[in-house]
Amino acid sequence: MAENIQANRDAKHGMALAVTLWAIVLVSVAFFFKYDLPELASNRQSQDTLYYAILGVTGVAYIIVHCLFAFYIWKYRHRDDAEGSYWRDSHKLEVTWTIATAVILVPIVFAGLVIWEDVKAAPPEDVFTIEAVGAQFQWDMRYPGPDGEFGAWRPELYTLENYLGIDPDDPAGNDDLHLINQIVLPVDQPVRIMLRSKDVQHAFFLPNFRVKQDVMPGIETSVWFTPTKIGEYEIACAELCGLGHYRMRAFLSIRSQADYDTWLTEQSQAN
Predict the structure, then answer these.
(1) pTM
(2) To the nearest whole percent, how much of the chain has pLDDT over 90?
């Protein structure tokens, strides 16, 4: 009697586990379609293409494996007449799935290397350069003035008034434009953003532009991309940088060339 009760309980547990796995697969697929990547607004379409290719391969494998797993749990749940089986390893099967996996993964790896090389390539000659400085807990931006040159800076010059550490003896910095938590750029114009940190490690993250770069104190890094869509976007710090990390956000505005020129003229006059 007790054995029958335990057997029924084991069968129900097997059924419940199988149904739970099927439900998890359905929910995860539904969440993928609901929470997709943010709208792409730069020239980095190749990254999205590779992402969806990898997600397609792994997603199909995920669905097949878990659905089969749940099916076998359901099919071979406890039954009085069930018998266990055993077979030795198969070298042919192991070689087959190793080769099949390599056929799938090797092209993905090489495609990733090509895309990464493109991301890290030197920017075009007509690239427009600005500077973004991370500090707890804001982003300080600097544009070169009409002379097209940035004034020199030194970390020992950081003060509350000179928060970018600009050398007052360098005339090239007299016409530089300073902004806080704001970047404005013209559409379809390649831009390079020079990055540095005043204090701790930050991460410059533009989700819509597929740009993310760690910003390390004492090391100047850079990223470049070409914005392709007019709109308003968010700049986030993607590295836990202190208690105020949650409020370290800025905004990027992509405008037409005419609107950008008007904005730049107004800012230069106000500066």
Answers:
(1) 0.79
(2) 45
